[in-house]
Every structure is written in structure tokens, then in C-alpha cells.
Amino acid sequence: MLSTDSQSGYITFLSQLAKNYNEAFMMGERKATPHHATRRSTILRLFGWLSLFTMLSLSSVKGQIEKFYKDFPLYSRGEMKKRWAMVVDLRRCTGCYACQVTCKVEFGVPFEGFRTWLETYEYGLYPEVKRLFLPRMCNHCDNPPCVPVCPVQAIYKRDDGIVQIDQLKCIGCGYCAEACPYGAIYKNNATNTYDKCTFCEHRLAQGLLPACVSNCFGKAMYFGDLADPNSIVSRLISENKVQLLKPYLGTEPMVYYIGLDETLITGVSARVKVISPRTGVKEVSAI
């Protein structure tokens, strides 16, 4: 069995090899044909599978957990010194799309990608038809399923709970996007890497709120430290009934909603029409 250092070196080697190949291909992308694009995607996925096979075959399950989470505090949420969280009060959301537009401007998100987006839900039977506006983003889960599937450890969880993707390590395999049950990770075709909401960590470092919170027209979005019992998010959660998306999955999301109809989470008898900038118009049975 290879040592931990040897395994880490091998993973780093595969990651760098994939990045070098990707950069070389991107330089000639204008001349690429659909055949070239398919071949490139296949090779990048091969690098990912090689890395994943190496880690699974050369380490025990315990070793894998230690390897993936060596920089992540495995203690409970209550023991964390800082735990960023968001509360969205849907009673105040007007569906103005300010959060979605602000996020795109802040990060220069490509037209087809979304770090934050607004969905509209229409449900119920006449004359009891209802409409709900639902801002969506990465939930920065306490138990993020996207982290352990990355074959090159490009996605990780910070000690303040923010889940981030290292753009220099990402090889564009897409495993994280497949693992996310919230559809919060998108592919940036310009860089061939994956990206998502980071709670505007660059603004937090300057003592500012996330861009979507600062520019919310209806003042429906709140952000703060859940480890601080006196923070705005702690107070809102303690004083109101809050809901989580897909709570049955055990991911323990850090985005809380006030005023979210629980029938949309558990499922309703009538079909629900959802209007989303990501997927268009479709019918679902639950969020």
C-alpha cells in the first residue's frame, strides 16, 4: 500500500496533468470539432476515474474520510467558532430577480450559468391557486455530498462552513454537480471548470454582506453567524418556523426559509409548475 504522501503526490500529478491537457486544448478550442470536444471530455473523465480508483483502492474508508476532510472540522456545528448561514423570508420576497442579477454582475457569471437564481412555483387547484418565489443557491451543507466525490479534492469545506471549489485544481469532471441534490453547481464553459455560490467570501473578508443580501429589494435575505446566538440569523431561526430544502437527505443545509409551504417539500396531490431560468418551465411533485 502506498503511503499517504505517495497517494497525495499521485493525485496531484493527475490533477496537474489534466489541467495541462485542458489548457492546451482550450488554446486551440476555436479550431476544435465536436469530435475533439468529445475526446477531450472523455480524457478528462479518465483522469478523474484514475484518481478516484487510486484513492478507493489504496486507502481504507477511514483513511478516505481523513484525507477528504483533513482541513474540515468534524466537530458538531455547536462547537464551531463561526458558522455562516442564510435565512430567506419568502413572505417578503417580491420575485424581482435582484439576487440573481446582482450575483451575475458581481462574479461575471456566463449567460447560461447561475450561482444564485430565482424560481417561481405555481401550485394548487382553482380557486386555491398559489404562487411562490424561491431564491436558490448553494446550501453550504454541514454534510455536503459534493465534497467526497471530487477525485482531485478541488471542492472542500472551510472551517467556517463555506463550501468552495478551487478553480486551479478543478479538472471539469462534473462529479460534484452530479452529487449535488440541489442543482447548485454549474459548468463554466469558458474555463471548463465548475462553480457555485460561495456566500461572497471575498466580501465577507472585507466585513461586507453577500451581494444578493445587500441588494435584496424586499429585504427578504439575511446573513450572519449561526454560532452567535445574538446574530440576525440565529434570532430569526429561533423566533420563526423555518424550512429546509430536501431535509430528508441528511445534508443539513445552511440556507433556511421562512414561509415555505411544507406541502412543496413533502409533495402535493396536484402537480406543481416551476418556472426556472435554469431549466425552463416544467412540472414537479415537490421541490
Secondary structure layout plus pairing:
Blueprint: H1 4-27, H2 34-58, H3 61-68, E1 84-89, H4 98-107, E2 116-123, E3 130-137, E4 155-157, E5 163-165, H5 175-179, E6 186-188, E7 193-195, H6 201-204, H7 211-214, E8 221-225, H8 232-239, E9 242-243, E10 255-258, H9 262-266, E11 272-276, E12 280-284
Parallel strand pairs: 1-10
Antiparallel strand pairs: 1-8, 2-3, 2-11, 4-5, 6-7, 9-10, 11-12
Q: If you had to describe this structure to a student in words, what would you say it looks like?
A:
The chain is an alpha+beta fold. It has two domains: 1-68; 77-143 and 196-284, Alpha-Beta Plaits (2-Layer Sandwich). Helix content is 32%, strand content 19%. The chain has nine helices and twelve strands. The protein has helices at 4-27, 34-58, 61-68, 98-107, 175-179, 201-204, 211-214, 232-239, 262-266, and strands at residues 84-89, 116-123, 130-137, 155-157, 163-165, 186-188, 193-195, 221-225, 242-243, 255-258, 272-276, 280-284. The protein has a four-stranded mixed β-sheet with strand order 8-1-10-9. A hairpin with a 4-residue loop joins strand 6 (186-188) and strand 7.
